[in-house]
């Protein structure tokens, strides 16, 4: 391996870095007790980039420049005020006493003639006009006439910035105003053609939307058995209905149970399993001869079916044709006689027609009744089916005798929500489940891993 | 082949419907915004008749809307407001994230809002249309006004609902339009008649606190938004129809205590209008007109049911409901000062006629349980107070919404009530002696006979037996009885002359009718047996 200079220097730099890190660790002990770690760590200045603005103030030493500037300032002030001249003079200037600066001498006037006045500097354009308007305004103000701009300023109303405009205009503001919305005549905004061209015409609401989506009433009163102090029979009626609902539920459950049930006696025992596996293997020798005989017959029959049919002869074809013709003739004759006989069967034909009509009418009525019943049912509007509420019933021992002891059953909020669904105003909704987009991964902390 | 082949699902019902997601994308709204828009505009999903056709062959359950409805939605100016609101939310979030509080304030001040007035005008072009839909609106408003004022739904909405419900109740009081009240286990059902429309609404009990989790509050809040606007406009119109100032200028405490008498716009000096002569309209007989007049008179009488009576409500009874009912029929009411503000007189007032209490303690004579008021309202007369004293087992609270047909079972309490309405005095309590039991039995028979309009002959004979005992009544009843007998004879002749087939049908019908009567008798017998057993128990307890 050739040790180049760069390699060597970089290796050395790395070693030095390592040494510095090691020394700076707390509790580092040196071999020589006199030498402390702080001595070893060469206080090497960190290399800083002085081109950055941030580092100008931090790392550059401007003390000497500042001293020089201060001195300059003192000198300048000394020149202007004579009191300070003395301490300046106290400072040793090499032989030369303080003389005024050359530039100051140049700037002084050297002639005794005063410089001419610049008239243009004092001239004001429109001075006369302005003066006259000011005088006029004064006169008018003395008479009490206020100029137009001032009048407008005074007429300006104060903008109320403190009142919250949005709150008063909100739809659910409790102090909102109502007016007669049906009493006002419709404002005629303009000619219909004009409105149409400027796209300001209001769209008419289609008639179909005014029909109610369901024939059910908005508020369905509970059955008389739902009173807080009900009559015996109406209460029993309500209980019976609730009972029927429960029975239906139980029926469905029972049906499910029955479908899933199996007879324990049907489970295969070891004996039957063995028998099944051994079937056909053990008893072969006894039944072989019996099986041979029926097998042969079967084969013959099978062979017969596969045999190719012989071609039809001319005679056979002629015979078939003649038969066909006869058959057709027979049928036509029969039809004719039937038609002739129908004349005598009019009465029975009439009765059969009547019966058919009756059946069709009955079916139509039934279908109409079914449709009407369907209208009252809630429609299937979305993914979920409509689930009717549980019946609000209080059992006989829960009935309160007085209004004070009444415990309300069911909530009006739920009732209204279900009523809206029943009347097809909204689709049946369920509470939204919390679904995670990404799976949660469970990781044990290192500390716990050590324990377990 | 030419290119003019008909492709499937390109015409007919498949093109009339659009799925919900497609509609949402067409409108460029998010799903909750789309739902809100549909609810506000009254556009509901439609179930097509042939789902397979519309769904392009699949039977997956999807929500369909009519395409024309969605096209109509595109012209709605509120859609723009929804989009503005979405942008407002986005900007607000950014400002919050950058902690620019001045920007947050500025944005909040200029929050976009919208009003629903034009939608109401469009959906309900006339006042009567709006009145027909007011059931739902009332139920929602009453429901929301009972919510707790936590942050779940806007507190402003709850306040607005409370204000509107109180105004509605004051209107019903001023117009005396309440007709029926029913206390159920769910809530209190009221029915009022306003401008010829029967309006039913439910009010939940004040002390029910369970809030079900399955209900979508956003949907309900949107409905409420629409309904509060509707109810406000309807209230304005109703108040102006009674010449009352809207919003009422009475203080809120008096208004919410339902003890205010609303100020009129034009004070009507002559409150007694001249009675107009009523002529029968075309096609009506004098009988029908008289019947109508009788009804009107009864209604007028019913409106002044509690007039002149002074009530005092104890602390444990439902104050608002009772105050509403009492004031609707002209009575005066007050309660304890610690319950609510607005009580007019104290317990110690000597002019109090009835005090409503629900406690089991035994006190003075005129303490009544609250069910008396509700039963009086339903019966349209003042019922005897004895059945409702403290500690007495209350008679059952029957539903006024049930209409019984001929021959159905009618509970004896209802019979008693009907008897009272007709002005007869019913039999006394069960705890009396056996003599009165006999009387009661006779009277029950009489009532059943009067109900039974089939005109059975056996009952006629029994009646005639009674008639013979008191000769004074003979003449009057004889004529009626003769007429009835004649009619019965004619009926029998007609039955004899029927053909076999018709007779068969007739028998079937009568069998069906009599079955109902038989069932009713069976139930009555059961009830009697039940009552007897209870009586025996009580007697044993006494001994």
UniProtKB/TrEMBL annotation, chain A:
4Fe-4S in keyword set: no
Keywords from the named record: Nucleus, Ribosome biogenesis
Region (Disordered): 279-382
Family annotation (InterPro entries): Nop53/GLTSCR2
Transmembrane listed as a keyword: no
Biased composition (Low complexity): 338-347
Biased composition, class Acidic residues, residue ranges: 281-291
GO cellular component, one term: nucleoplasm
Domain of life: Eukaryota
Pfam families: Nop53
Biased amino acid composition, Polar residues: 348-362
GO function term, MF aspect, one: 5S rRNA binding
Listed GO biological process terms: ribosomal large subunit assembly; rRNA processing
Biased composition (Basic and acidic residues): 320-337
Protein role: May play a role in ribosome biogenesis.
Record-stated family: Belongs to the NOP53 family.
Entry protein name: Ribosome biogenesis protein NOP53
Source organism per UniProt: Astatotilapia calliptera (Eastern happy)
From TrEMBL, chain B:
Record's keyword annotation contains Iron-sulfur: no
Biased composition (Basic and acidic residues): 474-487
Chain residue ranges for the region called Disordered: 421-487, 517-543
Cell compartment(s), UniProt: Nucleus, Nucleolus; Nucleus, Nucleoplasm
Biological process terms in GO annotation: maturation of 5.8S rRNA from tricistronic rRNA transcript (SSU-rRNA, 5.8S rRNA, LSU-rRNA); maturation of LSU-rRNA from tricistronic rRNA transcript (SSU-rRNA, 5.8S rRNA, LSU-rRNA)
Main location: nucleus
Keywords annotated in UniProt: Coiled coil, Nucleus, Ribosome biogenesis, rRNA processing
Name of the protein in question: Pescadillo homolog
Organism field: Astatotilapia calliptera
């Amino acid at each position: 391996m050739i040790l180049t200079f760069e390699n060597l220097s970089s290796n050395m730099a790395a070693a030095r870095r390592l040494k510095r890190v090691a020394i700076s660790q707390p509790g580092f002990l040196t071999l020589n007790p006199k030498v402390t770690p702080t001595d070893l760590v060469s206080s090497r200045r960190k290399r800083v980039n002085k081109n950055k603005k941030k580092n100008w103030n931090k790392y550059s030493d401007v003390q000497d420049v500042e001293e020089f500037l201060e001195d300059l300032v003192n000198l300048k002030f000394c020149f202007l005020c004579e009191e300070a001249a003395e301490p300046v003079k106290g400072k040793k200037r090499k032989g030369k006493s303080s003389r005024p600066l050359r530039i100051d001498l140049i700037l002084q006037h050297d002639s005794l003639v005063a410089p001419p006045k610049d008239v243009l500097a004092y001239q004001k354009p429109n001075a006369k006009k302005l003066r006259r308007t000011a005088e006029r305004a004064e006169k008018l103000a003395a008479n009490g006439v206020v100029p137009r701009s001032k009048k407008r300023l005074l007429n300006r109303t104060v903008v109320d910035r403190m009142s919250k405009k949005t709150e008063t205009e909100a739809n659910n503001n409790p102090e909102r105003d109502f007016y007669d919305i049906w009493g006002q005549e419709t404002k005629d905004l303009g000619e219909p053609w004009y409105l149409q061209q400027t796209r300001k015409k209001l769209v008419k609401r289609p008639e179909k939307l005014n029909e109610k989506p369901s024939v059910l009433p908005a508020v369905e009163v509970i059955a008389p058995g739902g009173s807080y102090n009900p009559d015996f029979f109406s209460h029993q009626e309500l209980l019976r209905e609730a009972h029927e609902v429960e029975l239906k539920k139980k029926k469905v459950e029972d049906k499910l149970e029955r479908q899933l049930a199996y007879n324990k006696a049907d489970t295969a025992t070891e004996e039957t399993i063995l028998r099944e596996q051994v079937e056909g293997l053990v008893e072969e020798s006894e039944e072989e001869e019996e099986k041979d005989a029926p097998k042969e017959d079967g084969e013959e029959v099978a062979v017969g079916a596969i045999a190719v049919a012989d071609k039809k002869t001319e005679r056979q074809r002629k015979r078939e044709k003649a038969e066909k013709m006869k058959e057709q003739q027979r049928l036509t004759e029969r039809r004719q006689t039937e038609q002739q006989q129908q004349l005598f069967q009019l009465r029975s034909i009439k009765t059969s027609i009547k019966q058919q009509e009756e059946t069709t009418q009955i079916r139509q009525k039934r279908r109409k009744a079914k449709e009407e019943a369907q209208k009252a049912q809630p429609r299937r509007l979305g993914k979920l089916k409509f689930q009717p509420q549980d019946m609000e019933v209080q059992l006989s021992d829960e009935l309160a005798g007085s209004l004070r002891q009444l415990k309300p059953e069911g909530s009006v909020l739920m009732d209204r929500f279900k009523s809206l669904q029943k009347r097809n105003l909204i689709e049946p909704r369920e509470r939204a489940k919390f679904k995670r987009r990404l799976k949660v991964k469970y990781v044990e902390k290192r500390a716990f891993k050590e324990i377990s | 082949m030419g290119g003019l082949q008909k492709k499937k699902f390109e015409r007919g019902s498949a093109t009339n419907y659009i799925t919900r997601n497609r509609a949402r994308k067409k409108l460029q709204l998010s799903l909750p915004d789309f739902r809100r828009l549909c609810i506000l505009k009254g556009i509901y999903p439609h179930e097509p008749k042939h789902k397979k056709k519309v769904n392009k062959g699949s039977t997956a359950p999807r929500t369909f809307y009519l395409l024309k409805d969605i096209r109509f939605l595109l012209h709605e100016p509120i859609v723009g407001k929804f989009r503005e609101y979405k942008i407002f939310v986005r900007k607000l979030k950014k400002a919050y994230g950058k902690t620019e509080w001045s920007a947050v304030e500025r944005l909040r001040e200029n929050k976009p809002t919208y009003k629903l007035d034009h939608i109401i005008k469009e959906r309900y072009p006339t006042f009567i249309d709006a009145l027909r839909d007011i059931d739902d609106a009332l139920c929602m408003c009453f429901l929301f006004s009972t919510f707790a004022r936590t942050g779940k739904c806007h507190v402003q909405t709850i306040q607005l609902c409370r204000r509107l419900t109180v105004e509605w109740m004051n209107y019903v009081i001023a117009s005396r339009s309440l007709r029926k009240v029913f206390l159920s286990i769910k809530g209190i059902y009221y029915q009022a008649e306003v401008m010829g429309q029967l309006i039913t609404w439910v009010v939940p009990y004040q002390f029910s606190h369970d809030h079900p989790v399955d209900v979508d509050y956003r949907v309900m809040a949107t409905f409420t938004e629409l309904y509060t606007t509707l109810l406000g406009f309807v209230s304005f119109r109703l108040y102006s129809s009674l010449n009352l100032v809207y919003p009422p200028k009475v203080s809120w405490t008096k208004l919410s205590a339902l003890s205010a008498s609303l100020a009129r716009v034009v004070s009507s000096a002559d409150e007694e209008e001249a009675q107009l002569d009523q002529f029968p309209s075309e096609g009506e007989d004098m009988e029908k007109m008289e019947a109508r007049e009788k009804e009107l008179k009864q209604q007028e009488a019913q409106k002044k049911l509690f007039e002149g009576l002074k009530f005092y409500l104890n602390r444990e009874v439902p104050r608002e409901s009772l105050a509403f009912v009492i004031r609707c029929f002209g009575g005066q009411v007050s309660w304890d000062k610690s319950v609510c503000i607005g009580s007019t007189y104290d317990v110690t007032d000597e002019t109090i006629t009835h005090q409503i209490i629900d406690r089991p303690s035994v006190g003075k004579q005129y303490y009544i349980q609250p069910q008396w008021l509700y039963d009086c309202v339903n019966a349209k007369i003042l019922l005897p107070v004895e059945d409702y004293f403290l500690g007495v087992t209350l008679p059952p609270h029957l539903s006024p919404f049930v209409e019984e047909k001929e021959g159905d079972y009618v509970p004896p309490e209802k019979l008693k009530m009907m008897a009272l309405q007709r002005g007869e005095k019913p039999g006394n309590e069960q705890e009396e002696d056996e003599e009165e039991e006999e009387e009661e039995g006779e009277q029950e028979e009489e009532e059943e006979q009067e109900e039974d309009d089939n005109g059975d002959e056996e009952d006629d004979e029994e009646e005639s037996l009674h008639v013979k005992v008191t000769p004074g009544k003979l003449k009057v009843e004889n004529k009626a009885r003769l007429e009835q007998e004649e009619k019965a004879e004619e009926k029998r002749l007609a039955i004899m002359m029927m053909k076999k087939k018709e007779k068969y049908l007739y028998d079937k019908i009568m069998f069906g009718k009599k079955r109902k009567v038989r069932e009713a008798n069976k139930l009555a017998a059961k009830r009697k047996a039940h009552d007897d057993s209870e009586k025996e128990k009580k007697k044993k307890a006494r001994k």
